[in-house]
Amino acid sequence: MRQVAVDGLKSAPLYMLRDQQTDVELWGGAFILSPFDVLNVFRHRLRDFFGFDYQIECFVPAPKRKYGYFSLPVLIGDTFAARMDAKADRKQKVLVVHNLHFEDVELNGAMIEKLTEALKAFVLFNQCRDVLFTKSNNGAYLEGISRGFL
For the chain, which domains are there? Predict the structure, then answer.
């Protein structure tokens, strides 16, 4: 094992196996993560490494929720870009996105396309045929995504 340092991070010592590659090339795709994904389990590391302060809000009283009952982190490349609170209406075969909250990051057209493709896959995964967006804090990004579902 060898100790590693991350610029700007003040934490307990971090280690990696000696034969592990230190230069990592990211795929750059978009992922809609479960709140229980291993990335989200250690909230302090998520905040320290990515600047993303995440909490599942199903245990937060409804009036105090910011993002939604079961908001899902959205990762594009190495950037946490949004949080999505969605529920599948399987009878109607519609994924209802109650809130798509974008973080304070700049998304380009390619990132919006990747997010749209991830959403399409998420719709199918949830055995739905369509998506209904009810709330977002960024109309321009939501419009770009919505065009991808026409």
Answer: 27-147 (3.40.630)
Note the pLDDT of residue 150.
78
DSSP annotation string for 10-72? -SS-EEE-TTS-S-------EEE--TTSHHHHSHHHHHHHH-------TTS-GGG-SS-TTEE
Residue entry with tokens 């190495």: 78
Q: Where are the beta strands (DSSP E) in 17-105?
A: 30-32, 71-76, 79-89, 94-102
Dist CA 37 CA 39 (whole Å): 5
| pLDDT tier for residue 24 given thresholds of 50, 70 and 90 | low
Cα separation, 64 vs 57, in Å, equals: 9
Distance (Å) of CA 42 to CA 36, 45, 53 = 10, 6, 11
pTM for the whole structure = 0.83
Ranges 21-25, 30-34, 46-50, 78-82: which has the least confidence: 21-25
